Amino acid sequence: MSRRTERLPPDVSQGAGFRGRIYHGENEAALWALVEQEAASFDLIYIDPPFHSNQQFTAEFPVGNGSGVGSPTRSVLAYEDRWESREHYLRELEIRLALMRDLLKPTGSLVVHVNWKISPYVQVLLDRLFGDGERDRPGAPGFRAEIIWGFGGGGAPRRTYRKKHDNLLWYSRSDTWTFNPAYRPYSAKTQERGLTQVKGPSYELRSEGASLESWWTDAAVQKILSPTARENWKYPTQKPEALLERIIGVHSNPGDRVADFYAGSGGFGVVAARMGREWMLADESPSAVGVALRRCLETGAAIELFVPGEARENSEFVVWRHADVFRLAPRSPGSTLDDVEYWSLDPGPPDGGGAYNHVFRSYRRPGHRTLGLECRLRCGSAPRARVLDVEGSWWSVPVRSVELKAIESEPIREIGMNSQPSGCTGEG
Ligand SMILES: C[S@@+](CC[C@H](N)C(=O)[O-])C[C@H]1O[C@@H](n2cnc3c(N)ncnc32)[C@H](O)[C@@H]1O
């Protein structure tokens, strides 16, 4: 197995909320770097890797300001789940699972989200890496439980059952682990009769509800996301926040370090930030990271974003500057900003690539797709402007000084989002 390392960037986070990191790239490189620098320091790792489906997943993202039915959309590659063979898939997964194990604290847990087709094979890998756990004896390191996440929807096959569940494989690194009991509402029948007839007159229903079984079918964690739900960022295979909230709540505590190395649309980071965990996400798909970044920013979290390499220059867009006013605009009359999902200004000098430190940012999100185009920024050095497009590509955009008249000829359309690091002050 070759050993590839890549340094993670220095902390450049600016937000006020719980600290998080987003790594854009192949997760094996990130895992090697983390094992070198931060081994045995994570309390919980959750992953929802490709399931060996031999499919390509495409997102249908909105473009421009509209988000309603009939608004323009663009098909964008989310990720490929194609492999030479099942063995190839398992080999690649095993390398990463071994690294994840080394990242866990002795009390840490790993939760692997797979489906019923690949689950048995992945369990064999995990048993080998972590131990047989409960299969051997209660309390032994390794396998703790297989949780069945049941959901509805779909057609009606004639010759078999509707297989509507995924499998969550929980492993602990040692014989000590975090488990905060979770509850579900009692069934209507139980509530009606109180249980007293079954368990005796002194038995009372608990106010928190019934202890959660290892099968989750309750309404709180259902899979189907409404097309108009605020949490629906249209990333294929996006998992509901309520499911992630349950996993994070049961298997970690506030202040713990948690990570998702197949992050997709970044829901795990969103929920971890809300629940007061220090979090890390990794994904190699540009469109996934484009969504995850914007989604996590919504929590107010302090985010350290790592994008390998430098953004290429894009001459379709320009940022006009007069004194402390900056405005993003298309370069030529025929072009639009419809493909722009996010833009930002970073203070100089250049940091040599990798670390992004956005002093001003404005971005589109579900239910609020209008982009703030102008900001006022008092900054001694010349800021760099970057654009993230709908496909998840980062572009560096030239900043050009102009006479005030050129900027004033158009009214300010929208106030952008803003944060204020040391050395620069600004307002959208
Ligand atoms: C099933 S999706 C995750 C969906 C996510 N749970 C969500 O709620 O949006 C799997 C993700 O793993 C990413 N991925 C696959 N192989 C990867 C690798 N080797 N390194 C980093 N990311 C990878 C894909 O780009 C994809 O976004």
Describe this structure in words.
The chain is α/β, with parallel strands linked by helices and 428 residues long. It has two domains: 20-178 and 214-306, Vaccinia Virus protein VP39 (Rossmann fold); 312-427, no CATH class. 21% of the residues lie in helices and 29% in strands. It has nine helices and 23 strands. The strands form five sheets. The protein has a nine-stranded mixed beta sheet with strand order 10-6-7-5-2-11-12-1-13, sandwiched between helices. α7 links the parallel β11 and β12 (278-283). The protein is globular, with a radius of gyration of 24 Å. Mean pLDDT is 86; it is low at 1-14, 351-355 and 410-425. Bound molecules: S-adenosylmethionine. S-adenosylmethionine binds at residues 26-27, 48-50, 79, 235, 237-239, 262, 264-265, 267, 282-285, 288.
Strand order across the biggest sheet? Answer: 10-6-7-5-2-11-12-1-13
Number of domains: 2
Main sheet specs? 9 strands, mixed
Could you tell me the mean pLDDT?
86
Derived structural class: alpha/beta
For this structure, the CATH topology of the largest domain is Rossmann fold
Helical fraction equals: 10-25%
Low-confidence stretches: 1-14, 351-355, 410-425
Rounded radius of gyration (Å): 24 Å
Which percent band covers the strand fraction? 25-35%
- Name of the CATH class of the largest domain: Alpha Beta
- What CATH architecture of the largest domain would you give? 3-Layer(aba) Sandwich
- Name given to the CATH homologous superfamily of the largest domain: Vaccinia Virus protein VP39
Q: How many angstroms separate the termini?
A: 49 Å
